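## Example pair
The file below holds two records. Each record gives the amino-acid sequence first, followed by its structure token line.
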Amino acid sequence: IDLDTARQELEEFIPHVKNISDSSIKKMAGRDLTRFKEFKKQGIAVKFGRFTQKENQQIQKNVEEFLAITGIDSAEKLLFTSRYPEDKDTIHRLKTEHHFCEKISEGIPRPWRLIYYRARKMFDPNNYKGRYTKEEKEKLKKYQALYGNDWKKISELMSRSNLSVAMKFSEIKSAINYGPWTKEETQKLMNAVKEVVRKKLQSENPDSLLSLEQSNTDLWIDRELLYQPLPWTEIETKVGSRYWRQCKQKWNSILTSKLARGQQLYRGINGLKAKINLIKRLYETGAEDASEVNWDELSNAIGDVPRAYVQAKFYKLKVSFVPLWKRRTFSEIIDYLYEMKLPEFEEQL
């Protein structure tokens, strides 16, 4: 089908399709459109966000079955073919003959590209190598001086994943300050976040900046936008004196403070109400796994706070009140809280 028709048809399944490049649309039309229509017939919606445990297991199954069919002897060879130049032509031929794209995405209602990236993350042995040694840090600095930010090349030389080397270099190069945040640093951080979110908004919807300029409130942006992943290495550069992880932690702290508006949400009667609401909302989701929960929506259960705040309160609930919680599944923990603790909390209230 032609490009405009493909974009129109994909819009039913992917609301942000207008922001996707023409070349990606062409690939999605070939790899995803038929799959999405089949899932629709079954009443299954296309998903984004974090992969569930069930989806991870399905990817594992798909990869193992493809290896068995083709005789390729490892998932690393299948998913990181460029690491094996002598086998490259054979592997590419087997992938084509046995319909690699269709097989790897079987049973998973997500865009093929996201499934492929998830599989690469799951099966990359370079993802799980622990702390960097002093020698590795020196090598990383040397390679970055030689190749700039070509993290793909550097990751191959270091036998680490792209993300790992990029983030580690970000930490190494920063003039790191481990003391308390100064007022100036905090203001720099807030300005940096504001700037990158403005930039994102402007690229996605130029009209939204008008309402942003007219707003005089502290919360200068729709709170849902503040939960979205932010480019922390870019923010780190703008702050100058802290590395990206510190910036992220400090921003979450600022966000919680601002959105909670100083309320003591977890004390006295308010605390009981918050626990009751959170347990009820979690039970109503019917989720089998924590990754299936929309934590942003649940934030309303205990007040206008970020998702991390809600997740922390749930963790405290299960640790404090659910015996042997480590041996229970997510749904068993929710059932226990609903059946055993909810009546107690309601009686106390």
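Second record, same layout:
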Amino acid sequence: TGCEKEPSSYMWIYILLGNLLRGIGETPITPLGISYLDDFAKEEDVPVYVACLHTIAMLGPMFGFLLGSLCAKLYVDIGFVDLGSITITPQDSRWVGAWWLGFLIGGVASFLAAIPFCFLPKSLKKPEEANNDKASHALLENMGATRNQLTPAKPKLRKWSVILKGKLLSNRMYFTFLCCSLLQFSSFIGFLTYKPKYMEQQYGQSTAKSNFLIGLTSLPPISIGIFLGGLIMKKYKMGIIGATKFAFGMSFFAYIITLLHLFVGCENHVVAGITVSYE
């Protein structure tokens, strides 16, 4: 009767809430960070700064995979049981690594990394305004005061539906970019999700080694590509049309090279009753 009882645990709720809070905290960094750079940096330097931002963002998952590889070598109940009494190894299918340890390390690191953001100024001097004299600043202040007098005190708030319909969804370039990003990230996430499992099943690698290889081979080239793309855009001073052509060319070549994955692999394992008969 004990074996018939289904195991029930509500720990997944804590994981769900933790990821929800993590997403809320991480989301503003990219849009607001890019806007911050775009407002207070020289126009020709913005592509390099944005590339550095995305490069660091890609290095994070790489270190995450390496950390996951390290934690997977440790037993799940580390600190609570005598490790000398554990008779199985990480190569055993019953082995469960210390998956929870990465959340604690990542949470502490995120908290420490968030502290410097509290000391960033809300606004900086724009490069063009550095050489302006006091008279021009006074003139701008007077113009701003006059404009504020002419502007109504309480502007009418616009609904989200009106903003989406009138500004975002009607912008063909933005909508096309949104669709492209959706397709790219969907394929990228699927690639990172199933490639470790494929290496475990087809090549007999442990979870720790699979995560280590993924973090070491997949993400650094992407980070280098993002950084080089920013340098190329800065060097040739690409506008919107030039950047679009550049992105299309690189994406097309990436698609052609990705097709080679169809010719890489090995046959499925022979499993009695599934791929072959019991005889």
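Notes on the second record: DSSP finds ten helices and no strands in the chain. The CA atoms of residues 157 and 163 lie 10 Å apart.
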